[in-house]
């Protein structure tokens, strides 16, 4: 039995091209493009490099890979050495996963990547140290990626200094996540058309140190701003912009002033504005092509301060008289006995044909509120209803967070106004 098993193993080894007993090495006889395709399936650059020990034919195959993936735990010196030895005509994708990476670790390989990369950079850092603020751990100086098409940086609050000069000539997609920005160069300078002439999609999420943001772009098509709690001033001049999403911004409880925003996007098709809104300080230019609008959640029950906040959100929807689709989010705050039903204060909606209704009921009956909205939407031809249950607590908690801070700010503003 053992002899049979051994005989089978020898046959398999020869068939696989290992060359046992002087057999033919069939794998090494394959052309380079087939070997490269095989190594790409590994999605692990260090493992691909270790295949060089199989035979002399494999010695430099890994260096021709157009994509390099470095998993968590890869020594930064090995990343730097691999980028230096890379011989492919173009590096179209570089993925680096770090854990508790410091700016010094990233600086070991990032400048080389900036010179070689012609495609996508994705650097994701997880589990960053929390013992000291990001600024005290130093900052990473981002080089200018002149040839890269897409850059995704998820740094887990590592400090980042943007390059003061140079153009991101071919950059079409930029995503910044969990970053602490430091001067002297501002994000506004980097992402505008003068330095990012080809930028089409920009996403800025959970970025600190961004109190004022101004972008002037002729190429930008999609813009997402999410969890920018300290943001207070926003200016957008984007003649080609089609999609704009502002979610959980302007929510810093320490700043009692109203957010200031000026949006000029005449080609805008989709607007998702789920943040503080005051018609006296948040201004939108004419948007004749707008087809879909999502507003801040509306509280079904509440007192005067909540009612005023609902009124502001409704004013945003009423600013656009004719749109195809309106998405309303109905949120039930805990009822404490003196709250009233606020849906009756909704007396007008835009002329729409599609209504999207998202209900965060939190155990409440939502029939009355939904029916009231439907009564004012006699022209709709399509209805979508999404019920967020208790299991979707993360979403509900996010909404509760922003509502509590915005309502708190509103109460303070009302108190100061009455005191005057």
TrEMBL record:
Keywords: Membrane, Transmembrane, Transmembrane helix. The keyword Transmembrane helix applies. The chain crosses the membrane at residues 353-374. It comes from the Eukaryota. This is F-box domain-containing protein. It comes from Triticum turgidum subsp. durum (Durum wheat).
């Amino acid at each position: 039995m053992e002899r049979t098993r051994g005989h089978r193993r020898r046959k398999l080894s020869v068939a696989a091209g290992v060359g046992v007993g002087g057999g033919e090495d069939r794998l090494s006889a394959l052309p380079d493009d087939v070997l490269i395709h095989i190594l790409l399936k590994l999605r692990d650059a260090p493992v691909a490099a270790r295949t060089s020990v199989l035979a002399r034919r494999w010695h430099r195959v890994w260096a021709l890979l157009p994509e390099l993936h470095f998993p968590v735990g890869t020594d930064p010196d090995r990343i730097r050495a691999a980028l230096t030895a890379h011989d492919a005509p173009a590096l179209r994708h570089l993925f680096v996963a770090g854990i508790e990476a410091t700016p010094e670790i990233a600086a070991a390989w990032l400048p080389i990547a900036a010179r070689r990369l012609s495609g996508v950079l994705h650097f994701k850092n997880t589990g960053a140290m929390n013992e000291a603020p990001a600024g005290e751990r130093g900052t990473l100086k981002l080089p200018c990626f002149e040839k890269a098409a897409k850059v995704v940086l998820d740094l887990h609050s590592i400090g980042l200094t943007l390059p003061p000069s140079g153009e991101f000539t071919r950059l079409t997609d930029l995503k910044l996540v969990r970053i602490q920005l430091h001067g002297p160069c501002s994000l506004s300078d980097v992402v505008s058309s003068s330095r990012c002439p080809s930028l089409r999609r920009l996403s800025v999420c959970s970025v600190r140190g961004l109190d004022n943001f101004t972008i002037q772009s002729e190429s930008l098509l999609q813009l997402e701003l999410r969890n920018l709690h300290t943001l207070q001033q926003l200016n957008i001049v984007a003649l080609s912009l089609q999609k704009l999403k502002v979610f959980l911004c302007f929510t810093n409880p320490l700043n009692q002033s109203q957010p200031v925003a000026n949006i000029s996007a005449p080609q805008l098709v989709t607007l998702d504005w789920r943040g503080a809104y005051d018609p006296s300080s948040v201004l939108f230019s004419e948007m004749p092509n707008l087809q879909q609008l999502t507003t801040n959640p509306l509280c079904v029950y509440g007192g005067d301060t909540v009612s005023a906040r609902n009124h502001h959100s409704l004013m945003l929807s009423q600013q656009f008289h004719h749109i195809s689709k309106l998405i309303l989010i109905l949120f039930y705050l805990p009822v404490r006995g003196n709250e009233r039903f606020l849906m009756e204060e909704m007396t007008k909606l835009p002329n729409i044909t599609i209504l999207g209704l998202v209900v965060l009921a939190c155990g409440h009956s939502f029939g009355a509120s939904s029916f009231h909205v439907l009564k004012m939407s006699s022209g709709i031809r399509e209805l979508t209803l999404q019920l967020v249950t208790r299991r979707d607590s993360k979403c509900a908690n996010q909404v509760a967070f922003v509502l509590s801070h915005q309502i708190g700010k509103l109460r303070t503003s009302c108190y100061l106004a009455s005191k005057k």
